[in-house]
Design brief:
Layout: H1 17-22, E1 34-39, E2 46-48, E3 56-58, H2 60-73, E4 77-82, H3 102-114, E5 119-124, H4 146-163, E6 167-170, H5 177-187, E7 194-201, H6 208-213, H7 235-247, E8 251-255, H8 261-271, E9 275-277, H9 281-285
Length: 286
């Protein structure tokens, strides 16, 4: 600082609205947001989610309408999550590989409605498709198998990319999945499909209402602490981010957002890459 009072008056630039706007260091607009949408079966369906006031599940025609609304609002991207019906869930989550599953139909509905005017981000994990509610395949003891799960996640990612997804967002927290998915996308001709890695996803009670939204809460026995991160760890978050970037992630996410703003800051300062924070269902519902 080279001047002192009265030559320097920091209040001088705060005297009018236009001046405050011109000197504002941080601006949050709709262009900074991703709108999460829950897709369900049927036609002309809107199902309010009781644990998420103001949020509904929509059939694909409703998803298309929300896409048109998002374009008008200036929101650049939609994130899709399917509410798979119990009859289509299975131990191995094979519905994730169905090219006509809810996720793929939702992607196509958005494309038909607005073309490339908005981005489509798709969740990659098996919990919306498994009968046990875990994010991956399990063994006899209920332990989630890493490498076998990654093989299915690759197929799921290719399925979504073929349907028109712009950003693949693996939320499963399996080791090594980013690199394998990136290679598979390249080999299949999807070089421009981005990967947003859920790099630092902490085990959290804040995910409860989301599990209501996708219909997996009542199915889950136990927890996800063998693959989601321990809330006590911050250095491990940096290791996770470094690994995902080395494997080909275009951007990274910290989840949940509000309780881990220190991690968001550390990741941004350390890696200087696009960092997204997920305001999760439990934060929203508070």
């Amino acid at each position: 600082m080279t001047a002192s009072y009265p030559a320097l008056r920091l209040r001088r630039t705060r005297t009018t609205g236009w001046s405050r706007a011109m000197h504002r260091e941080t601006v949050l607009t709709p262009a900074d947001l991703i709108w999460p949408l829950f897709v369900t079966d049927g036609s002309s369906v809107e199902e309010p989610i009781s644990s998420l006031p103001g949020v509904s599940r929509w059939s694909t025609d409703g998803i298309a309408a929300r896409a048109r609304e998002a374009v008008q609002l200036g929101i650049p991207c939609l994130a899709l999550f399917p509410n798979t019906q119990p009859g289509r869930r299975s131990e191995d989550g094979k519905e994730a590989l169905n090219p006509d599953n809810l996720m793929c139909r939702g992607i196509r509905a958005i494309r038909d409605a607005v073309g490339d005017a908005i981005g489509v981000l798709t969740d990659v994990a098996l919990d919306p498709y498994t009968s046990h509610g875990q994010d991956g395949l399990i063994d006899e003891s209920g332990y989630v198998l890493n490498d076998a799960t990654v093989e299915v996640l690759v197929g799921q990612s290719l399925n979504q990319a073929a349907a028109g997804a712009d950003i693949i967002a693996p939320s499963d927290m399996m080791d090594g999945r980013i690199g394998v998915i990136r290679t598979a996308l390249e080999d299949a001709g999807h070089a421009n499909v981005q990967i947003m890695a859920y790099a630092a996803k902490y085990a959290s009670a804040f995910y409860g209402p989301f599990r209501d939204a996708v219909g997996s809460r009542g199915l889950l026995q136990g927890d996800k602490k063998t693959y989601q991160m321990d809330p006590a760890n911050s250095e491990e978050a940096l290791r996770e981010v470094a690994l995902d970037l080395a494997e080909g992630a275009d951007s990274v996410m910290v989840k949940p957002g509000l309780p881990y703003l220190d991690i968001v800051r550390r990741v941004k300062e350390r890696f200087e890459v696009p960092v997204f924070a997920y305001q999760v269902s439990g934060e929203y519902a508070m």
